[in-house]
Every structure is written in structure tokens, then in C-alpha cells.
Design a protein that fits this description.
It is a single chain. The protein is 80% helix and 0% strand. With 450 residues, it is mainly α. It starts with 14 loop residues before the first helix and ends with a helix. Bound molecules: phenylalanine.
Length: 450
Amino acid sequence: MQHSDGGQREVFNTRVGFILAAVGSAVGLGNMWRFPYVAAEGGGAAFVFLYILLTLAIGIPLMLSEFSVGRGARLSPIGALRKLGGGRWSVLGWMYVFTGFLILAYYSVIAGWVVRYALDGIVAGFAPDPAVRFGEVTSGLTPLGFHLGVMATTVFIVSMGVQKGIERAALVLMPTLFGILILLAIWAFTLEGAVNGYAFYLRPDVSELLDPYILSQAAGQAFYSLSLGMGCMLTFSSYLSDDTNLTREAVTISFSDFGVAFVAGLVVFPVIFALGIQGDVSESTMGALFIALPGAFVEMGAAGRVIGILFFIALGVGAVTSAVSLLEVVTASVIDETRINRRKASILGGILIAILGILPAVSLDFLGVMDKLAEAMLALGAFFMAVFVGWVAVGAADEIRKGAPERFHRFVPSLMASIRWVVPPVILFAAVYAFIAVYTEYMSAFGGGG
Ligand code: PHE
């Protein structure tokens, strides 16, 4: 792909490279850790159906909104919003950079735990008492060390640039992740009791769908999982050329992301039900992944060890490619705003985020609050993005038509209508719930309840 206006901006080398990088951003802890539980708690198959609906009605229009701004301006969020909307809108860009800091700071801490679990499996096998082990893994100074390790890896990839770093890493890492996950799902299918896991995961409980809380959960999960609402997709699309069919790419990326999340559920629930440990799972989603699953791997002996190692490697891969996209937003913004070079910008951003990550690395309470706040910030960011593209900046429709064959053009009016009328109210609703959740989490962590 050649850069059409002859500028210096980096570009993705291939279509597959871009898609895998974007899917790498989308696929992460949100898919393999959060989705299965939110879905199971929220009505099983009925939730999955609602989630697909939201992906179509909200996720894809929002992703296209970000794409149209990013490729339209060929700048990272701050500059792009300023260019298309005037100085006031650059504030939204700054908010995105802030959200990037916030998310990556705790995301890399969790990614560090994942690496530690993978190492546990490789070095000595998973610990016999997973709850005790979880306590060890998340306390003291070691989580800080692993957090720094993840940050260093992330900085390394981002500093190498769009083609040589981000694209190349995605081309290797994402197929690895897909391969491992499919293997795991096939293996899980052979487990005795797998059927009960599927039955729980996919029970068609329509009644829960009428609960507005579930709707807000599904919407929140959709932005989080698709990396929307903080300029990630915007930034990646700024490295695309005019002949890219944005609509086709948005659909491909969104459904790949959903596919991974869905298959992760097909791994997790059979494992848990095969061992009859579903009780351990309902307490917390964090516990589910880091306590129930390692527990299951231990019970399964040698096979469990291999499976567990593969599972945590896949999860770690997903987390690192997402971390890369988060750091890229910060790095690209520094490059575009200051003309500091990529290497220095990524190191600078990485160091600041590593420092912010000290708090969640040493305090689980802090991490919990940051996670909720991140979700709320994404909802807010997504809301303003939809308002911007739907009502403020003109030209999104033309940008979306560019590079798309005629037969795609007839979807553009309904797409724009959705960006104007459907997306903003639904997101606003989800944002309100998300901010309430921040408050609740904060009070339960620090509100002097003890
Ligand atoms: N989408 C990532 C996940 O599912 C998280 C993420 C959110 C990454 C926002 C970038 C931006 O884990």
C-alpha cells in the first residue's frame, strides 16, 4: 500500500497485516477472560445474540467512525480531531491519550500475571492450591517486575514502527493465538461433562435480557473488546491508504473479535464443568480465570499442564498485542504533536505508563477501580466519537465510500443514520451505568466499609 499524499507517514504493508494488527488490538483479556463470564452471567445464548446485535448496530458503526476520522486526517487522535473539527475537539484526543495511559497501566499488570502463570506451568507445573497462588502472584513486588517486563516488550515492539514492529508482531502472534485456541476448543469438546459446560454457557435465558443492566454490560463489553472509544482504531486506520475498503475491514475485524471471544467460552466452560468447580467461578471474573482454571489444570494432571501452558501463552499473546495498540495511541500522539521520533516517544510513553502501573501492581483494589474507570472512559469516548462523526465533522460518508466498491455504497446512509440516532443514546445509557459502577467499586474498595 502506498501513501497517497506523498507524506512521510508510515503505512501498513499489507491488508492482512493491518487486519491482524487491529484484531490483535481487539483480541485480548477482554475476549478470553471477560466475555465468557459476562455472557454466562447475562443470559447465555440470549446474551450472545444480544452481543451480536450490538456489534452490528453499535460496534461496526463506531469502528467505521474511528476509521473515517483516522484515515481522513492521517493523524493520531489529537491532531485528527483538531484537523476535522477545530481546536476544541482536540480535547477529546487528549482524553483518548489519557484513557490509553489508564488502561495500559493496569492491563500490563494483568498481562504480567498471565506471563507468570505460563512460567509456573512451564517451570514446575501449576500450584496445587490455586487460590493461595493467586494471592502470591498478585502481591508483593514481583507483580511489579512482571508488569515492567510486559511494558518493556510492548515498548520494544512499538519502537520498531508500524511495519517492522506492530505489523510483523501481529503476523506471527495472531495466527499462533488462533491455532492454540482452536486446539484447546477441540480438546475441551472431548472432556466428560463438556455438555454441561456448553449448556450453562449457551442456555437461552431470554428473561435476563430485559434487564437494562445486562444491556449496559453487553454494550460496555462490546466497546472494550473492540478497542473502541479511545482512538486505537482511529490511530491504526491513519496508516491506511485510500484504496482500503473500510467497511469490509470493520466487519472482518469485529467478527474475528467476536469469534475469539465465543470460542474462548467453548474452552473455559467445559473445563470448569468437567471438574464441577462452577461454584468457584461465580465469585469474581478475575478469580475465574486465575483461580478456577489453574485449579482445573492441576486436577487434569500432565495433560492439564500442557493445556494450561498453551492457554496462558495464548492469553499472554492476546494481551501483548492489545498493549501494543494502547501504547501506539500514546506514541503516535507524541510523534504527531511534538515531532519527537518514534523510538524516544515510545520509551517516554512506556516509562510514564510503567510508573502509573505501580499502583495497580501493588493493590488489587486499585486495579479494580481502574478497570471500571477504563470502561466508563471508553463509553464516554465512544459517545463523543459518534457525536463528532454524526453531527460535527462532515465527510465521514465520503471517506467510508472511498475504496469501497459500488455495492457497499448503498449501506452508507443507514450506517450514518445509525451513527447519528442509534449509537449515541445507547452509549450514553451504557456510560451512565459504567460511571455508577466506578463509584460502587470505589466505595467497596476504599469507602471505609471496614
Ligand atoms: N480490546 C482489548 C481486549 O479485549 C482491550 C483494549 C481496550 C485494547 C481498548 C485497546 C483499547 O482485551
